[in-house]
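User: For documentation purposes, I need each entry recorded in a consistent format: the amino acid sequence on its own, followed directly by the corresponding structure tokens. There are two entries in this batch. Please keep commentary to a minimum and don't merge the entries.

Assistant: Recorded as requested. Entry 1:
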Amino acid sequence: MSAYPKKTFALGGALAAVVLALSWAYAAAAQTGINVTPTHIPATIAAGDETREKVSLRNLSAGEVEVEAVVEQGQGEGPLAAVSVAPARIRLAAGESAEVEVHVAVPSDAGVGRGEAYIFFNVADASAGNVAIIGKIRVAVEMNVIRPVSEADFSYPLIIGSGPVTFTMRGRNTSEFPVAMDGRIVLESLLGEDVELVSSSRQVSNDESFELQAVWQDPPLFGIRRLKLSLSSGVGAPVTKTSYILIFSWKLVPALFLLVAAAAILIKKKPAIANVFPGKWRQ
């Protein structure tokens, strides 16, 4: 007996199994009244970022159905992402299809790691005012929260004597893809105009350390500035730091020395008072 009939029989059996599995899946969807795709949404999101995904709904029943989306928050580290569906309630006529939008927003202080949430699409028969739930389909939202910039470090002088002044920003790309790193510095003045410095952008590979610099060419002779530094990859919330710096130019030292010396001389010198009173008054 040749191997050809055996191969044909095996291929036919596999094809029949696939057809049977699809038939079961369609029958299960028909029992719930709708077909939902996809049922699994993987998302890699940076802390402080958001994403929007589409989910398709199709009414497989012979009558009108009402579908309501209910979000159930799963597990995760730190503040959890906010998951919502719009529209949260929709009616579908027999054979009708529609799309809903799943919005996932991760807070900037969210913990790095994996989290999950579930969306349950509850299906009710909308014919003749009947709102009894006839089926429920679950969509899993798996989130991998990342923080593209880690090990951030800002280096700068706290007292500035003269220009130019260099501000250095260091960090490491801990995302899963190359990103363009940018540094931004705002020097806020209490009285004058603010100064904004922007570093040159640099493409940084995954798990690569980097260094960016911004230069302040002409600082004033004197002043106090509030310093706001930020390091951003364009994905998620930037890494920020706030500080204060004192500006005192060395050019003011001779003038300050002369001023102190003059003040010391005036303090030591005692002014003479004229003797204008009569002698008997002085007794």
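Entry 2:
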Amino acid sequence: MAFNATVLQTIIDYSLSEGPILLKPFNARISVQRYFREFERGDNLNVIFMSAITDVSKSSHVIEIPVMRGLLGYRQFILHKGNKSRFNKVHTLDALRKWTVGQIEGWPDLDVYRANEFSTIGSHDMSGLFRMLVHGRYDLLPLGLVEIEAEYNKQSSKETPLIRDNRLIVYYPWPIFLAVHERETALAKIMSRALTLMAEDGTLDNLVVKFFSVELQTIKRAGDNIIHLDNPFLPAHLRPFRFVTPTTNNSRPAIVQP
């Protein structure tokens, strides 16, 4: 993702006074499970973007600054077009729970939906999820606003019976942090200082607005059509906080206590 690369490059720029940082991309196409195993080993992969509930945080240096400022917690749905008129009548969490949700096996999101009393189904890859949705194995495929359009275009043909719903949004707290392998203590300290400065001077906020202006406007237009879910898997010390996302160039996102 271009946003992630820009964040990392900006961290490097902010850290020049502390010496050069060399970060090389890890481009292997591997499963989610293997991705985290590679990080735990730390031989080929030692800096990652991760959700706050990922288990690898127990053995790594986690920089607890929400890099995307809460944006990834906003999800919209892909569904079969034959169900669209019925889905338009969904306005509450109780009504939404009557629809079965599909997600990638191994994604922590699956546990969030189950904890919020949804019926769920899993697949090992995105192509499988789309095929299962076409054949009616489940009802809704929720994806982040930052990824849903690209994934829909990648997986669907002109003849697809699937559509993206642009009306309803689901939100649950889903902060994305940077994690550095436990052996890289010095690197973690340098990156933490840089990211702290970027959060304090508004650089992170400006990057979110620059890269995700369309998604931010989608949130703004949704108004009351946002259904909130609980994320009981957040670490206890993060639960009192609310992650706020900007909707204009003049409103800065932040972590604030309610």
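Summary note for entry 2:
Confidence is low (pLDDT under 50) at residues 247-258.
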